[in-house]
Design brief:
- The complex is a heterodimer of chains A (675) and B (200).
- By secondary structure, chain A is α+β, with helices and mostly antiparallel strands.
- In chain A, 63% of the residues lie in helices and 11% in strands.
- Chain A has 21 helices and nine strands.
- A five-stranded antiparallel beta sheet of chain A has the order 2-3-4-5-6. In chain A, strands 1-9-8-7 form a four-stranded antiparallel beta sheet, with no helix packed on it.
- Chain A is globular, with a radius of gyration of 27 Å.
- Chain A starts with a helix and ends with a helix.
- With 200 residues, chain B is mainly α.
- Chain B is elongated.
- The chains are: A alpha+beta (675), B mainly alpha (200).
- The interface between A and B is large, with 105 and 87 residues.
């Protein structure tokens, strides 16, 4: 089966090359037979990569340790659940997953758009084929997942203990899905640029893909935060690691695009900007992968260094030259149909929103690469860690939060004073009340006060929009309020789904602001001894060490330290933090013992206890105890955000907006404007 | 009788086989655990399975000044974490506990916070800090995003003003959902349909 996989990989490379060449030829010559051949080559590529993936999966599940990848990432006693995740735990497997997902999404995009966008389809197929060829060629020439060892070890090295967590089963695929799905909007943007069909037709084709990509990236990022929080044991969920930053960058640019595309659809403006954002998002998704594989920047996420990084660098440069070169070539054709009329308009608010999102993306990018720049300019290495990113991004993030509230309330084209008064009265009042309340309870952290006050402002704007919308339906149609609510959302999923996303964003900001009140300490306790830890809410946790026990469990040997926890005299339960010594099938340790955190979470705060170790081999234990306010809001904020994204993504019978449909037909638009 | 004996033998054999299988399944560490007598002094049977041994925490370890200092100093083990976070998280790291001891020793010798940081910079260079020290070229790291914001703001405001001048002045939009005063139900219905079309 592995030989078949290897052969299929080579055939896929040839088919991919054929598909790329024939697709661009089809676009240029308008030959339907070549176009069909290009489309079919994407489907065949997908089929071949399914066989390749099945071959690798079979090798993993049957413990074929003669294959280097299988020996490096699995062992006989690795649970099947994690053997599955070993598929993408290493570089070679993750490249295969990427290629498989690109061709899967590419096939779906071509099937969904069959018979539509005739001028674009060949170029879309060609671009997807080129991207797939890049990944397949990287595997074939630099990182073949079927590479064999000169001998067959009796057992594999097993999976990194920190990856043996449910979060790592879902987080990487989600991020890969996010990264790879950006390839589809990129392919349509390239197709629109090459073909010169620059009306909103290509935007209709990619609308769902951009939302889907944004949704996958959002879920992948939040799942990664959850994994870091429960598994790494440092008491936080975001460390501004270069690879975390790399996943955040395309999320920021995609978010900017999701806002600015509305202006293009409604008003025919920002065409150059939107194409630039799509191209930029794709490049940033490749940049993230380049960072993890090149070793140019030190990161805990880095894969083993290899020459794969050069492949990515070359591809990144080539894609940038092609994308922005085409944009420059078509620049004169991308003129706005109308001009912006006033600074006090929704268009202007969205422009400022885009500006802040891009500046945050720039700040994150700049901070990530500044160590390289400093070394190149001054010959001095510097570290750019969380204090820098927090210092720079907190004010920018709060500006963005303010615009999250302002944008949806201002009228299109030009807002009147009456409009502003009517829309902003209650949200501003809510903001001031919350700020005053926080000042009254003597919240000292100014950034946190501003964050909560602005959060109240945004929540008030969303609630006001829902209340007014439901009220209007209730009055106009005589519908019951719940029916009016459901129909209001159902009839305009994009708008109201977007508001739900805004609520998720506020929850996330509330959680981030809670970090200002984080408390942590270390204690040493003998069995029966207790320690008191004071919460920022004013109550006291009483933590009593019960003892340390050792036992076998699945593929590991566990040392568990237990504490009884009570809060202000009320017993809350027993919490257990562990050291896990993972073992191979012969009972030999595979790595250093890993730490499992004990977490007690509610909406107000998390009690986070880490068993740091035993004193001189006794049951006397050292614990790290962290009180993390509002962490719960990160996970549920993420869920609300994803739910809002799903509402927005859910297909609507109406399709694109009437204004946007008119713009897809330039002649129709001219008629409309002229009317 | 012989049948009972045979059954007993079979049971013994099965038990022995089961035990052997169980033993084979058990880890080497577990076998060590089972081989040792219980320890009434609270000693761990397999201490190495609990990771590197730690020393009891002192009041100085938790001192606010020590924590603040260690949050500013990077662990040099390659983990990208600060010394405090690394020594209280990565229990396999031997670098961060050593750097922690160095911080304590320097404070014990009477150094101020600034002097401790200076001493670390002399020893390791600027990369020992979690963020670039604010001087010289490093200011570029802090200022560039805000310069970008300023330039972007200027561009957006300038462009919007230019566009606003160039475009014919349209009347300001009325409040988004202002009720139509004095409209008939038919007019309201028509208005509703138009609004829905526009908002869709």
């Amino acid at each position: 089966m592995t030989e078949l996989g290897n052969i299929c990989l080579w055939i896929a490379l040839l088919i991919g090359l054929w598909g790329s060449a024939v697709a661009f030829m089809a676009g240029r010559t308008h030959r339907a037979d070549l176009g069909r051949s290009a489309e079919r080559s994407i489907f065949v590529l997908w089929g071949l990569l399914v066989v390749v993936s099945a071959a690798l999966m079979r090798a993993l599940l049957t413990h074929d340790f003669n294959i280097e990848y299988v020996a490096a990432y699995t062992s006989r006693n690795l649970p099947v659940f994690y053997t599955w995740s070993a598929f993408y735990a290493g570089q070679k497997g993750s490249l295969l997953l990427w290629a498989l997902v690109v061709t899967s999404f590419g096939s779906i995009a071509l099937l969904v758009n069959r018979g539509k966008h005739q001028d674009l389809t060949p170029y879309v197929a060609g671009t997807i084929a080129v991207i797939a060829v890049f990944f397949i060629a990287t595997m074939v020439f630099a990182a073949n997942p079927f590479e064999r060892l000169g001998f067959t070890p009796p057992d594999g090295r097993g999976l990194n203990p920190q990856l043996q967590n449910p979060g790592m089963v879902f987080h990487p695929p989600m991020l890969y899905l996010g990264y790879t799905s950006i390839s589809i909007p990129f392919a349509f943007a390239v197709a629109a640029l090459i073909s010169g069909k620059l009306d909103t037709g290509w935007l209709h084709a990619i609308r769902r893909w951009t939302l889907l990509s944004w949704l996958f990236l959002s879920c992948g990022i939040v799942l990664g935060m959850w994994w870091a929080y429960v598994e790494l044991g440092w008491g936080g969920y975001w460390a501004w690691d270069p690879v975390e930053n790399a996943s955040f960058l395309p999320w920021l640019t995609m978010t900017a695009f999701l806002h600015s595309v509305m202006i293009q659809e409604k008003r025919g403006m920002l065409k150059k900007w939107n194409i630039g954002l799509v191209v930029g998002s794709f490049l940033l998704s490749i940049f993230g992968t380049f960072l993890t594989r090149s070793g140019v920047i030190s990161s805990v996420h880095s894969f083993a260094q290899s020459n794969v990084g050069y492949f990515f660098l070359i591809f990144l440069i080539a894609a940038a030259l092609a994308g922005f070169g085409l944009l420059w070539y078509r620049w004169p054709m991308l003129k706005a149909e109308v001009q912006l009329e006033s600074m006090v308009s929704r268009e202007a608010a969205f422009l400022f929103n885009n500006l802040i999102l891009i500046v945050i993306a720039f700040a994150v990018f700049w901070g990530t690469i500044f160590p390289i720049i400093s070394e190149a300019v001054r010959g001095t290495k510097v570290t750019v860690g969380p204090p820098f990113f927090n210092q720079v991004n907190v004010p920018l993030g709060l500006g963005l939060l303010l615009l999250t509230g302002i944008g949806p309330l201002i009228a299109w084209r030009r807002a009147s004073l009456g409009n502003l008064r009517r829309q902003f009265l209650w949200p501003t009042a809510a903001m001031l009340v919350v700020a005053a309340a926080l000042a009254a309870v003597r919240m000292t952290d100014a950034w946190a006060v501003v964050a909560y006050a602005l959060g109240a402002f945004v929540v008030a704007t969303v609630v006001q929009e829902f209340v007014r919308g439901v009220g209007a339906r209730h009055r106009l149609h005589g519908e019951a309020l719940p029916v009016a609510f459901v129909r209001l959302v159902g009839r305009n999923r994009r708008r109201y789904g977007g508001y739900v996303v805004h609520l998720g964003i506020v929850m996330l900001f509330a959680a981030f602001a809670g970090l200002a009140f984080k408390r942590d300490t270390e204690v040493t306790l003998k069995p029966g001894q207790s320690a008191d830890v004071r919460s920022p809410y004013g109550w006291t946790y009483h933590i009593t060490h019960q003892g340390v026990s050792q036992y076998d469990e699945l593929n590991r040997f566990v040392t568990a330290a237990s504490v009884d926890v009570s809060r202000d005299g009320k017993y809350l339960g027993t919490m257990k933090s562990e050291k896990r010594q993972y073992l191979d099938s012969m009972g030999q340790p595979t790595a250093e013992p890993a730490t499992e955190v004990a977490i007690r979470s509610d909406a107000r705060e998390d009690l986070y206890i880490v068993f740091a170790g035993a004193v001189q081999g006794t049951e006397e234990a050292v614990y790290k105890i962290v009180i993390n306010p509002l962490v719960w809001w990160v996970w549920y904020g993420g869920l609300v955000l994803a739910f809002g994204g799903l509402i927005t993504l859910w297909p609507s019978a109406q399709g694109p907006t009437p204004a946007s449909r008119r713009r897809a037909e330039p002649a129709g638009y001219v008629a409309q404007v002229g009317a | 009788m012989w049948r009972r004996s045979a059954l007993s033998l079979l049971a013994v054999a099965l038990t022995a086989t089961g035990l052997a299988a169980q033993t084979a399944r058990d880890s080497a560490l577990s076998r060590r655990l089972k081989a040792r007598p219980a320890d009434s002094l609270g000693r761990l049977e397999v201490p190495e399975a609990a990771g590197r041994g730690v020393r009891p925490v002192t009041a100085q370890d938790n001192a606010a000044l020590v924590m603040a200092l260690e949050h500013k100093i990077r662990c040099t083990c390659g983990c990208n974490l600060d010394v405090y976070t690394c020594r209280t998280t990565d229990f396999t790291c031997t670098t961060s506990p050593a750097l922690h001891q160095l911080v304590l020793a320097r404070l014990d010798s009477g150094m101020t916070e600034a002097q401790v940081l200076d001493a670390f910079q002399k020893q390791y260079g600027e990369m020992i800090f979690m963020q670039p020290p604010k001087h010289g070229f490093n200011w570029a790291a802090y200022l560039m995003p805000f310069i970008g914001l300023g330039v972007g703001m200027g561009l957006v405001v300038g462009l919007v003003k230019r566009w606003a001048k160039a475009s014919p002045r349209a009347p300001a939009q009325p409040a988004a959902a202002a009720p139509a005063v004095g409209a008939t139900p038919e007019e309201m219905d028509k208005l509703k349909q138009e609004l829905e079309k526009f908002e869709a």
